[in-house]
C-alpha cells in the first residue's frame, strides 16, 4: 500500500503557503508540517532566554537543547517549545523581527533540517517553508513554488496580524515582509530559491481553495504514474 507522497511547498513570506499547505494536507489526509513555525519557536526561545539572535554560538547551543513539536489538531497546528504551547506567541511582531537572523544560522538550519527529514521519512506529508524542495527534501515527489506580488503578500500578513489583535500598520508590515524576503534570499545557507523541478504557481488574486485544488491535482497526477 502506498504511504503517500512528499509534497514540498516553498515561496516567500505571504505567498499563501500556510493556508494552502494546510488545505492540501487535509484533502489528501497527509500530515502538514509548517517549518517556519519551527524557526519561529527557536527565535521565541532565544528572546525568552535573552540570547542575542546574532550570537551564532549562543543560538547554536540553544537550538541543541530545545525541543520543538508540531501537534496537528482539528482547529489547526499547535506548536510546542519545551512543553510550552507557543502557537500564538511565535506569531508576534517581536519574534517576526528576529526570526530571519535565527534562520540564517547554519547550526540552527542543520538541526531543524534533520528533524524535518525525520518528519517526512514515512511519506504522506505536505511540508512548507523556504528550502524544502531545494535542501530538506530534494527528492520530494511533488514540488511547488508559490509566488505573489509584494503588495498582496504584505496585505495578507497585515490582515493575519490584525485578526490576532496586533495593532500594526500596513506600511510597517510591508517593510517586515520586504526585509524577510531579502534575508531569506541573500543568506549563505539554504537561501530561498525555486527548485529547478518545482511547479511555479502565482497566487496573486486567487483564492487559497483554487490554489490548493491545483496542487491536489498535481499530487494525484504524480501518484497515478507511480
Ligand atoms: O514562514 P514563516 O514566516 O513562518 O517563517 C519564519 C522565518 O523562518 C522566516 O524568516 C523564514 C524562515 N524560514 C526558513 O528560513 N526556512 C524555512 N524552511 C522556513 C522558514
Helix content: 40-55%
Structural class: alpha/beta
Q: On the 0-100 scale, what is the average pLDDT?
A: 94
Shape: globular
Radius of gyration: 17 Å
CATH class: Alpha Beta
The N- to C-terminal Cα distance equals 12 Å
State the low-pLDDT regions, or none: none
What does the main sheet amount to? 5 strands, parallel
Strand order of the largest sheet: 2-6-1-7-8
Quickly count the helices.
9
- CATH fold group: Rossmann fold
Number of strands: 8
CATH architecture: 3-Layer(aba) Sandwich
Brief rundown of the structure:
By secondary structure, this protein is an alpha/beta fold.
Description of the structure:
The protein is α/β, with parallel strands linked by helices and 226 residues long. It is built from nine helices and eight strands. It has helices spanning 17-28, 35-49, 56-64, 93-103, 106-120, 132-136, 150-163, 170-186, 208-224, and strands at residues 6-10, 31-34, 68-73, 76-81, 84-85, 125-129, 142-147, 199-202. Strand 3 and strand 4 (76-81) form a beta hairpin. It is globular, with a radius of gyration of 17 Å. The N and C termini lie close together (12 Å). It binds 2'-deoxycytidine-5'-monophosphate. The site of 2'-deoxycytidine-5'-monophosphate has 13 residues, from helix 2, helix 4 and helix 8.
Amino acid at each position: 500500500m502506498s504511504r503517500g507522497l512528499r509534497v514540498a511547498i516553498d515561496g516567500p513570506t505571504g505567498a499563501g503557503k500556510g493556508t494552502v499547505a494546510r488545505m492540501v494536507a487535509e484533502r489528501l489526509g497527509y500530515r502538514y508540517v509548517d517549518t517556519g513555525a519551527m524557526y519561529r519557536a527557536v527565535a521565541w526561545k532565544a528572546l525568552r532566554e535573552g540570547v542575542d539572535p546574532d550570537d551564532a554560538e549562543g543560538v547554536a547551543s540553544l537550538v541543541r537543547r530545545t525541543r520543538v513539536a508540531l501537534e496537528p489538531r482539528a482547529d489547526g497546528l499547535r506548536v510546542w517549545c519545551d512543553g510550552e504551547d507557543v502557537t500564538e506567541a511565535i506569531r508576534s511582531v517581536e519574534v517576526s523581527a528576529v526570526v530571519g537572523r535565527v534562520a540564517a544560522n547554519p547550526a540552527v538550519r542543520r538541526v531543524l533540517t534533520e528533524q524535518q527529514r525525520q518528519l517526512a521519512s514515512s511519506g504522506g506529508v505536505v511540508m512548507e517553508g523556504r528550502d524544502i524542495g531545494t535542501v530538506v527534501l530534494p527528492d520530494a515527489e511533488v514540488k511547488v513554488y508559490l509566488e505573489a506580488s509584494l503588495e498582496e503578500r504584505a496585505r495578507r500578513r497585515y490582515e493575519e496580524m490584525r485578526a490576532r489583535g496586533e495593532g500594526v500598520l500596513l506600511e510597517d508590515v510591508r517593510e517586515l515582509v520586504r526585509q524577510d524576503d531579502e534575508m531569506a534570499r541573500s543568506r549563505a545557507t539554504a537561501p530561498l530559491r525555486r527548485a529547478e523541478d518545482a511547479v511555479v504557481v502565482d497566487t496573486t488574486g486567487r483564492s487559497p481553495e483554487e490554489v490548493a485544488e491545483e496542487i491536489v491535482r498535481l499530487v494525484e497526477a504524480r501518484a497515478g504514474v507511480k
